[in-house]
Amino acid sequence: MWRDSKQELGTEEAERFGLDTIEEVMRERVRATIEAIVEEELEAALGAGRGARVGEQRQGYRHGVRARRLTTSLGPTQLTVPRARLQRGGGKRVEWQSRGVPRYQRRTQRVDEAILGVSLSGTNSRRLKGALAPLLRGGPLSKDAVSRLVGRLKSDFEEWRQRDLSQEAIGYLMLDGWYPRVRIGRRRVRVPVLVTLGIKAEGQRVVLDLRVSGQETTRAWQEVIDKVVERHVGVPLLALIDGNPGLHAALRAQWPHLPIQRCTAHKLRNLVSRAPAHLREEVAED
After folding, report:
1. Which of 59, 94, 118, 209 is the 20 to 30 Å CA partner of 124?
2. Is the pTM of this model over 0.85?
3. What residues make up the domain containing 64?
């Protein structure tokens, strides 16, 4: 029976391509790129390439490879990471550790940021894995891994919230309560977050502090102000607030002579909300 071999070859070639072809090719290239970067990093640490004879310049020797699975933004990728021992003072040898692909890293930073973003929006671990299925593509993601990521974020946030402010040269303060929805247990509720924004002389805005509070009371705002003072924010030239009496009292207690200005946006918003519906557009324009 007569057959067209060229047509069969074309069909076989066409079957190689599908909906995931682009991702598969890109994952393979990502794998090769990561391995090349790690190889360059190791050569720099050893002071010599593979098999090179450089004498005393050499800082250590290879001793095999280690298989690794790393989840990138294109899904999980199998890597082969080289191993080596480096020579240190006194004849001591230590195991070489890659900085590009740390020993216990299982996901790239971009994947971790996506996981944190979805988690902080109030999604539980089971739904999170389903929502990120196109990104993870079967890559491992346990509830403990999500908890560790959130815990690390919490420690980073605390470090940021305790940083020294003496070099910021803050001239003006803007303080206000922000009421986002958060998940507490199985309920989504609004909670007040006390926000302190600093403005430099050239107009640059800097978030100085974020603090969850039960309500906007004088005591709550006093705690916020005490913390930024402890971090050497300096004496501001002006404070802008929404008219909250507790915040006003807390500012006066810390800086008795500080000029305090009512926020124009809050004032106009309150005026418009109290005007009759048919006059709101005219009031807003005025």
Report:
1. 209
2. no
3. 19-49+58-106
